[in-house]
Amino acid sequence: TDLEVTHWWTSGGEAAAVAEFAKAFDATGHKWIDGAIAGSGGTARPIMISRITGGDPMGATQFNHGRQAEELVEAGLMRDLTDIAEANNWKEVVHPASLLDSCTLDGKIYCVPVNIHSQQWLWLSHKAFEDAGVPVPTNWDEFVAAAPKLEEAGKIPLAMGQQPWQTSLAFQVLVVALAGQDAYNKIYGDKDAEVAASPELAKVFEAADQARSMAAKSNVQDWNQATNMVITGQAGGQIMGDWAQGEFQVAGQVAGEDYSCLPGLGVNEVIQTGGDAFYFPVLADEEKSAAQADLAALMLSPEVQVAFNLKKGSLPVRGDVDLDAANDCMKKGLDILAKGNIIQSPDQLMSADSLTRVNDLFVEFFNNTSITAEDAQKRFVDIVASAD
Amino acid sequence: MEEARRPNQLFRNLNAKFAAIPMVLTALVVFVGGTIWTIVYSFTDSRLLPRENFVGLAQYERLWSSSKWLISIQNLFIYGVCLLIFSLVIGFILAALLDQKIRFENTFRTIFLYPFALSFIVTGLVWQWILNPQFGIEGVVRSWGWTSFSFDPLYNADIVIYGILIAAVWQSTGLIMCLMLAGLRGIDEDIWKAARVDGIPMWKTYLFIVIPMMRPVFITTLVIIASGIVRVYDLVVAQTGGGPGIASEVPAKYVYDAMFLSQNLGQGFAGSTMMLLSVLIVLIPWAYLEFGGKKRG
Amino acid sequence: MAELTLNYAQGDAATRADALAGPAGPKPRRALSRRNIFIYGTLIVVSMYYLLPLYVMIVTSLKGMPEIRMGNIFSPPVEITFEPWVKAWAQACTGLNCEGLSRGFWNSVRITVPSVVLSIAIASINGYALANWRFKGADIFFTILIFGAFIPYQVMLYPIVILLREMGLYGGLYGLILVHSIFGMPILTLLFRNYFTSLPEELFKAARVDGAGFWGIYFKIMLPMSLPIFVVAIILQVTGIWNDFLFGVVYTRPDYYPMTVQLNNIVNSVQGVKEYNVNMAATLLTGLVPLVVYFVSGKLFVRGIAAGAVKG
Amino acid sequence: MPSVVVRDVSLNFGSVEVLKSLNLEVGRGEFLVLLGPSGCGKSTLLNCIAGLLDVSQGQIFINERNVTWDEPKDRGIGMVFQSYALYPQMTVEGNLSFGLKNARLPKDEIATRIARAAEILQIEPLLKRKPLALSGGQRQRVAIGRALVRDVDVFLFDEPLSNLDAKLRSELRVEIKRLHQKLENTMIYVTHDQIEAMTLADRIAVMRGGIIQQLDTPQAIYSRPVNRFVAGFIGSPGMNFIEGEVVGGAAPAFDAGGIKVPLDRYEFGDGGARGGKAVFGVRPEHVALGDAAAAMPCQYDVEVEIVEPMGSDTLVWGKFAGQNLSFRVETERAVSVGDRVRIGFDPGRASLFDADGGERI
Amino acid sequence: MPSVVVRDVSLNFGSVEVLKSLNLEVGRGEFLVLLGPSGCGKSTLLNCIAGLLDVSQGQIFINERNVTWDEPKDRGIGMVFQSYALYPQMTVEGNLSFGLKNARLPKDEIATRIARAAEILQIEPLLKRKPLALSGGQRQRVAIGRALVRDVDVFLFDEPLSNLDAKLRSELRVEIKRLHQKLENTMIYVTHDQIEAMTLADRIAVMRGGIIQQLDTPQAIYSRPVNRFVAGFIGSPGMNFIEGEVVGGAAPAFDAGGIKVPLDRYEFGDGGARGGKAVFGVRPEHVALGDAAAAMPCQYDVEVEIVEPMGSDTLVWGKFAGQNLSFRVETERAVSVGDRVRIGFDPGRASLFDADGGERI
Lengths: 388, 297, 312, 361, 361
Ligand SMILES: Nc1ncnc2c1ncn2[C@@H]1O[C@H](COP(=O)(O)OP(=O)(O)OP(=O)(O)O)[C@@H](O)[C@H]1O
Ligand SMILES: Nc1ncnc2c1ncn2[C@@H]1O[C@H](COP(=O)(O)OP(=O)(O)OP(=O)(O)O)[C@@H](O)[C@H]1O
Ligand SMILES: [Mg+2]
Ligand SMILES: [Mg+2]
Fold this sequence. Notes:
- Chain B: InterPro entries: ABC_transporter_permease, MetI-like, MetI-like_sf.
- Chain B: Belongs to the binding-protein-dependent transport system permease family.
- The complex is a heteropentamer, with one copy of chain A, one copy of chain B, one copy of chain C and two copies of chain D.
- By secondary structure, chain A is an alpha/beta fold.
- Chain A is about 50% helix and about 15% strand.
- By secondary structure, chain C is mostly helical.
- Helices cover about 70% and strands about 0% of the residues of chain C.
- In chain C, helix 13 packs antiparallel against helix 14.
- Residues about 1-15 of chain C have low confidence and may be disordered.
C-alpha cells in the first residue's frame, strides 16, 4: 500500500536518514511516498495542517513532538496509536519515558517519537583555533575569552545563520547551560516570572549580548552554511543542535580530531529530550490504516532506530539499542542521557504561541544592538508572566 | 391595441445573471464571506483550529503591543511609500523615454518587462545572491581593492527593507512602464503639438500637462501597485525570511506566522483584520470618487 | 539667421539664390545629439540594472562549484558546464526524490493550462456582463471584487481550506484550478470590463437588434474582437499561475505539486554548501515558460494594456 | 393607422430625466425625423423604440402591438447607427446574414434577401470584403443593408450620415430618400443636421431637453416655428433675431431701438398682439435687396460688414438697429464691405417671439 | 510681399509620399483655405509650416525668414487644432498664459494680452473655468485665444470647426471672419467643408493626394474649376455631371445619348474644342425652371423624381439623358414627384471636362 509521508528533512544528513525509514518500510511490501517540503518546519507545517484540516490528510506526518499537534489530536483528526503501542510495548522501550508522555493525551498515545534531538551543543573547529593560536576551549567562558584572538586571525568567533530559529535556539541553550536546569524548568514549565527576573538570568542575557557581538560578522542564512563555516575553519564555533553532527560526518570529519562538541556549552551538561515524532492522521481507507500501523511499529523497531539515528546524528529513543557505531559526540550524549541529566524541550513545555513570543524577543534582541540586556530581560519577564 | 403584460423583472437578462453567478459567488462567498469569517474569528482565542471562544479585543491588544507587528507595519509603510514612488517615477520616466520614437523600442521594453515574468521566489533568490556581501556586489568591489566598501542591505537591520525594495522595484517597474506607455500613447497627439507651438519645454509638458491627463492610468496603476504592496510576502521570505532578526517583517508574514507557526489563528486573524481595514480605508474613498462621481457627472 | 533674410521686394535673382542656399530639407540631426545621448544613455544604464540578475543567473548556472567559490559572480565562466542544468532538471534531490524539476514540470502544465483557460473564461464573461448587461447590483459585486484584489492570499488561506473541504474539492487538481480562478478574477474582470466598455456600444446594440442573445453576442461579436486583451490576460495568468507556490503546495497533494515547489525544495534544501549553479539553473528553467510567453507576445501586451487597463 | 406609437414615455438615468412623458405617433410609411441639439434625448428615444433601453414609464406600440416589454429582435425594427457598428471580423455578407441566421431562416431565403439588399444598395462587389476594407460611405450602405435584410416595417436611423464628409453626406441622403420611396416603410431618422431633416422628412419632431417642441411638416416648421428655439435651429444660415418691443393696439408694430416695423401683415397667434418685450425673427433668404427690396412692405438702409460668398449665393452681414442682420443675395450681385444698401422684408413671413419664454406670439 | 512661402516641399512617411514638391505663397494678411478630402495631406502641410513635422525636402519661409529648421515656437505662428487640444487641468486663463509664462514675459504684459484676447473672443466670464466645464464652441474660442495671445503674424487653423454641430459651426465661422478682418494677419485654414472654404477664404487651395489642384479665389474655383475633381468638390449641392461626347468643329456641341447641347457660348480652354468623350458639368443653381428657363439658351423637359425641400429653397432631382440631374428652385414653387417640368441652362456657365483625365476642356 502506498503511504504518503510528509516531513521537512531535506538537508544531506536528514535525507539520508529518511531514506532509512523508506527502505525499511518498502521492505515490508508497502510503498513510501515521499512528501518532502524543504525550508523548515515553518514552511512545511502550514501545509500539513491545511491538508489535515482540509480533509485530504497524508498517511503520516512529521511534527516536533510536544504541543504542536495538540489541537489536531483534540479535534479527533489524529489516529489513536494506543493499541500499537501496547502491542509493541512502547511504554517499556521508550527511554526516557517523558518522550512518550508528550505523545499522550488523556491516556492515549497519538505519536511515534523517532529520535531525541538535543540542542545544547557548542561545535568547535579545531582548525580555527589552531590558526588563531589558542587552545580549543572546553567551555563557554573559555570560548568567549578566545574570541578576540579568533577575530584577530580573521575568523568569525561564533557562526550563526540569519534564520530566526537559530538565534532563538542559541538563546534557549544559553538559558539552560548558564542558568541551570532548575531555572529552565521554572521559567518554561512553571512560567515563573520571578526566576525570569533573577540575576542568573541577567547573566544569560549578558552572555547573549556577547554572543551577538561575536556573531556580528556572520552573514549566512542557513544553519548548515554556518556549520560549514565551522567545518572549513572560517568560524570558531557554532551553537547548534546535534543534527549538525550529520554535516560534519558528510564532510568526512572526525569528532575529537577535526572538531569537538561541548554538550550544555561545557557548563551544565544537560540535554533536552525533544525531538521529532510522527503523527498518523485518521484515514478512511482500511488498507492505508493497516499500513500506518506497520509504519508506526517499524519506526520504533531497534534496527530502524539505529540506522536512522546514525544517519541523522540524533539519539535513539530506545534505551535498549546497541550503538557501537556511534562517534565521540554521540557517546557523550548517550552518557548524559544515561545519567538522566535531561530536560524537556520548550515545545513540550510551552504553547507554540508563547514560545513564538519568547523566540521573537530573542531574535529581536540578537539583531538589534540598541536593545540592552536589561531591557530584553524586562520584556522576557513580561512574556513569561503571561505565557501559557 | 392590445396590452402587454410586464414580464417578471427577475427573469429579464436571465443569461446575464446566470453568467454572473461565478462572480457573485466569488464576491459573496469568498471575499465577503471569508472576510467576515476572518473578522469574527479574530475575536476568539482560536489556536491551531478555529473555535468559538470569544475573548473580545484581547487579540488586538496583544497585536498592537507586539513589537514584531509594529515593525511590520512600519516596514510596510516604508516599503509601500518607497515602492509607490520609485516604481511610478521610474516606470513613468522609462515609458517617457521609450515614447520618444526611439530605435530598439521593443528590445528595451522587453528588457524592462521580463522580470515581471519571474516569480518572487526567483527574484528574491537572485537578489539575495547579488546582495550577498561575500559573493555579490560588496565582495566584488572589495576584490577590486576597495576593501572598506560596504553594501550589504540584506544583512543590515537598519536598511534591510530598502534591500528588499531593490528587488521589488526590479520586478514591478516593467509592468508599470507598460501601463504608462499605454497611457502616453493614448494622449491626443494635438496636445503635444499645441505645447510645442507654445514653446513649452518637453519636461514641463510632461509634468504639467501630460501627467495630469493620465489620471485614469495612474489610478489603475495605483490599484495594481497598492494591491501588490499590501500582499508582499514571498519576496521577503525568499530574500531574508524576515531577518536579520525581525527587521524585515511585514504584516502578511506576521499573519502567516501567527496562524501557522505560532499556531495562534486568532492572532493571525486579528492581524488580517487590521490589514483589511487599512485596505478599506484606502479603497472606500477611491471607490466613492470613481463610481459615486460618475453617476453625478 | 539675419543673413538669410529674403527680400522679395527687390525681386533680385541674386538674393533669391542666396535664400535657396539657406536651410532646406529636413533639419540635420546628429546621431550623437545631447538628447540622444541622454535617452539612450539612460536606457542602457537602466537596462543594465534589469539585465544584471539575468546575466548573473546565466553565468552562474554555467559555472562549476569550485569556480563559483573562488571567483566573483559577475565574471564569465572560464569553463562552461551544462551539468548544473542537467542536475537541476533531472537529478537534484528533495528528500528522497532525485528527479529534479522534471517532476514538477508536467504538473505545472496540468495546473496552468486549465486554470488559465477557466479563469479567463469566467473573467471575460464577467467583464462582458458588467460592461454590456448592467444589472442591478452589478457595481456592488464589482467593487467587492476589486476589494478582493487587495486581500493578502495568506489571509484567505484558511477560509478557502474550509470552503474547499465543504465542496469536497480539497487536495485535487480541480480545487486548485478553482482557487486560481478565484484569485485571478478581480484584476482580470477589471481588465475585461474596461476593454469591453471601450468597444463601441452600438456594436452591441446592433447585435441585439439582430437577435443575438447574451451568449450569441459574446461568442460571435465580442470574442473575435478581444484578441489584445486576451493576450494580456493570458500573459498575466500564465505568469501568475506558473509562478505560484503557495496555493500549489497548500491545496494539492504531492502528486500535483507544481514546478515551483520543486524549485523551492531544490533551493532550500541545502546540502553542505549551497549549489548556486544548480539553483540558478533551476531558477532559469522554472522561469522559462513565462519568459517565452513574454518574448513571443510582448508587442500585443502593450496594445492590450492600452485597450484594457488604461481606459475606464 | 399609426405604425409606431410612443405613449407617455419617460426615461430616467438615475436621477436625470432624459425623456419627459413623451408622446409621438408615426404613420405607416411616414418618414419622421427627430431633430435637436446634442444631448436632447434623440438617441435615447430611438433606443426606447428599438427596445435597447427599458422605458421608465409609458408604452410603445409598433404596428398596433404593445412591444413595451419585447426584445429588440421581436419588434419588427431595423436599426442603423452613426458609427455603422459593423461586425469587424465578419465579411459584408456575414454582417448581413448574422441577424437572419440568428432567426434561423432557411439558407436560400437568406441568400435571396442578401442578394436583394445588395442590389438595392449596389454593394454586390463588396460582399466578400471586411468592413475595414470599405470606405465610410460603403460602410454605411452595408449598415443600411443589414437593416434592410431584416424585412421589417420600421427603420430606425441614428444619425447615419454624421460620420461622413459633406459630399458623401449629400449623396447618401438622396439614396436614403430614394430607398424610402421604393420601400415605402416607416422610417424614424435621428439627426442634428437641419438640412438633412428638411430634405428627408415627411414630418419633423424638433426636440429639446427630452421634450418635443414642435412636430410638423418641414415647411410648417420652417415658416411658422412655435418658438425661438425651433426658429433658430431650423434654416441655414440661421434666422436673424432682432430684440425690441411690440407696440400693441390697432396698428401693432415692432420697435427696435427706434426703428419701427409695422406688424399689420403679421398673423398673430391666439394671444393676439400683446405689447411688451419681444424678438423679431426674419430669415436671411426673406430679406430682399435692391429692386426686390423695393417691392417689400418694409425697407431700411444697412451698412455691409461681412460678405460670405457661398458659391451659389452670398451671405451678407450688416447691422440693423445695432444688431446683426444677415441676408442672402445672388452671387452675381457685387456687394462689398462698407457699402450702404437698401434692404426690404415682408413682416408677414417673419416670426415674433416672446422675449422671455421664446414662444411665438 | 508674401507672408508664408512654401517652396518645393516634399514629405515622406517612410515610403509614402504625402506631399509632392509643393509650392505655395500666402500674402500678408491673406486668408488662405486648404481644402480637400480626408487624407489628402492638408494637416501634413500645415504641420510642416508650423514646424511640427520636418520636411523631407524644400524650404519654408515665414515673413521672409527661412524657418525650415526653426522650432515651432520661433516661427511666429499660432495654431488651432480640431480637437481644441486645451490643457484639461488648467483654467482657461492658465491655458492662455502657459505659453507666455514659458517665454518669460512680464506679468503685466501677460495680463494685458489675456485681457485683450478674452475681450476679442468674449470669453471673459470663462477665464476661471476649466475646459471640461465649457461647451464645444467655447472651447474652440479658448483655443483660438491661445493662438491669439502669442501675438503672431501667422495663424494656422486645422479644421477648427469640424467637431462642432452645424449651428455652432456657422456662428463661429462668422466670428473667425470678423477676427480676420480685425487682426488683419495671415491665416491658413484647413477644412474639408467647402462651405467654410467658400465663405472664409480670400483664396482656396484645393488639394488632392498631396498636390494642389487649383489655387484661386473662391469665385474662380466655383465658376471655372480646373478639373472634375475640383468641380465636384466645390458647391453644395454638388455639380451635375452628364457623360457624353463633344462634337467639335465650327459649331461645337455636347452630345449626351442623343440630346445635344450647343457649346457656342462655352469658353474653351487653350486646347480648344477637341472632339471625344467628355463630361458636361452644370451646377444645380444654374439650372432654371419655368419662366426663367425660357430665357436660357438650352431648354429640355425632365420628369421630377425626388423633391428635397431645404427650407430656403428646394432641390429637385430628375433624369437628363438617362443621368441624374438636380436643380434648385425656390420653395414657393410647388413641384411634386412625377411632374414633367421644363428646365433651361446656360452652357456659358457650365464646365466641360475630359472624360479620362478630368481636365477642363
Ligand atoms: N447611459 C447613460 N447614463 C446616464 N446618462 C445618459 C446615458 N446615456 C445618455 N445619457 C444622457 O441622456 C441625455 C440624452 O442623451 P442622447 O444620447 O439621447 O442624446 P442625443 O440627442 O442622441 O445627442 P447626440 O446628438 O449627441 O447623439 C444626455 O444628456 C446624456 O448625457
Ligand atoms: N505619422 C504618419 N505616418 C504615416 N502616414 C501618415 C502619418 N500621418 C499622416 N499620414 C498619412 O498621410 C496622409 C495625409 O494625412 P493628413 O493628416 O495630412 O490628411 P488630412 O488631409 O489632414 O486629412 P483629414 O481631413 O482626415 O484630417 C494620409 O494618407 C495619412 O494616412
Ligand atoms: Mg445620439
Ligand atoms: Mg487633418
